[in-house]
Amino acid sequence: MITALWKGFLLKRKGVSTYISVLLLIVVVIAGGILIYGYTMGWFGRLGGEGEMGTLSVDTVSASVNGTDPFVTVYLRNVGGSDVTLDVAYVDDVQATSINQTTILQGNVDKIVIKPSQTLTAGNTYEIKIVAADNTQVAFSVKAE
Questions:
Q1: Where is 12: in which H helix or E strand?
Q2: Rounded to an integer, what distance in angstroms lies between the CA atom of residue 136 and that of residue 92?
């Protein structure tokens, strides 16, 4: 008797509409796409409380050929939320021989001297990129004098 009632209940019961199931599937796919996009763009990657990254701003820059000892002088301002320790510099995508590895405190301006590994030619423009230990980056161009 109970089995017959149960079978009748299951036969009379209708399932979820095809249209509703397709809409639910689309919503799930869009939500998954948003999560993946947010993670790859770094929106969710720093939720662990690592702190803010620094932000560097170039105040003044000059490049001196100076015979066989060329150098680039940059005044960098840290406008970010934390201190920034400079790690490496690149001149036209070639790692520089040396950079005075200094920590720029939040809100301060420091003089940075970069010694490129290649010789600089007066009148040419060079692309400089400075990368900090926390992957804070600043890139700019300078014309050698």
A1: helix 2-12
A2: 18
Q: Poorest-confidence range of 16-20, 45-49, 140-144?
A: 45-49
DSSP character at residue 53:
P
| Residues 120, 145: Cα–Cα separation, whole Å | 9
Buried b (16+ CB within 10 A) or exposed e, 87-101: eebbbeeeebeebee
8-state DSSP, 58: E
Average pLDDT, the chain: 81
CATH assignment of 56-143?
2.60.40.10
From the list 97, 92, 80, 70, the residue with the least C-alpha distance to 132 is 80
Q: Which residues have a Cβ under 8 Å from the Cβ of 83 and sit 6 or more positions away? A: 54, 103, 104, 105, 106
Q: What whole-number distance in Å separates Cα of residue 106 and Cα of residue 2?
A: 76
How far, in Å, CA of 143 to CA of 130, rounded?
Answer: 17
* Residue 139 token pair: 């890139």
Rounded to two decimals, the pTM is 0.61
In terms of DSSP bridges, do strands 84-91 and 125-132 run parallel, antiparallel, or are they unpaired?
antiparallel
